[in-house]
Amino acid sequence: MTCPIYIGIAGWSYPDWKGIVYTKSGIDQLEYVARFVDCIEINNTFYHPPEPKNCKSWLSRVAGLPDFFFTAKLHKDFTHEGRIDPVMVKQFHEGFELILEAGKLRELLIQFKFDFEDTTFNRTYLQQLIKHFSKAFNIALEVRHKSWQKDDALNFLTDLGVSVCNLDYPHSSTSFDMPLCTVGKHGYLRLHGRNAAKWFAKDAGSDEVYNYFYSQQELTEIKKRIEQLADAFQSLTVIANNHFKGQELANSLELKSMITGLPQSVPEGLLKEYPQLARIARKTNLF
Q1: DSSP letters for 228-249
Q2: Which of 94, 95, 157, 195 has a CB 3.0–4.6 Å from the CB of 50, allowing a cystine?
Q3: How far apart are CA 247 and CA 209, in angstroms?
Q4: Which domains does the chain have, with CATH numbers?
């Protein structure tokens, strides 16, 4: 049986979205863009731990969307620096308390770098890290090294009680590249784009790395993958992360239309930037 499928985007506050996604000055960006997607992955918590006042604000701004939810990224100190700071652990629990109580935070994304391999040391670190968050959060774990797709490693991750992310991104010989990873109860698929030249360039900035627009053929392939994954989970969250100039929103709306068979509301500026969206836009597009 196919599980519920939720299509969303990573983040909502980007300077390059001005004039494309956000065409009116003074607009509440979160309240506005949340109308178009099922969920949003909060990505600023990768750089700054959540503050209760911000989370209260986010919650109030999506109050009119009863089915909408968030996911959130864990701070990079835990994943990229290898530090478990008790103070920051507490900040994540207290900062997200209101959103958790409201049932609006579905997953905590723990994203490691490509060089985080399956080693005895790293397994121990993962066990310690997960222990700090697993009681309060559903955990989606993103690993990018191929060593984690061995049977023994997958069994270890299964025993941790996490969901392992499926990924669409440029591959190297050492990349985690399972097309259908079914570890966990709730699936999480992240679409990073396929800009291989910039993905592997050491001097590339974030805008360059995520500057990618999925073609119709690529989205059709991803749709098939989504349908296969949906047979294995209780729910499936799909997050587009090719954020430059609103491309993630455009592609997420295309995917949503392909999966549901229904036209979508499209922001006016996004439709002007990507006129191909006209084929999936509602005729009475009021946004």
Answers
A1: HHHTTSSEEEEEE---GGGHHH
A2: 95
A3: 13
A4: 5-262 (3.20.20.410)
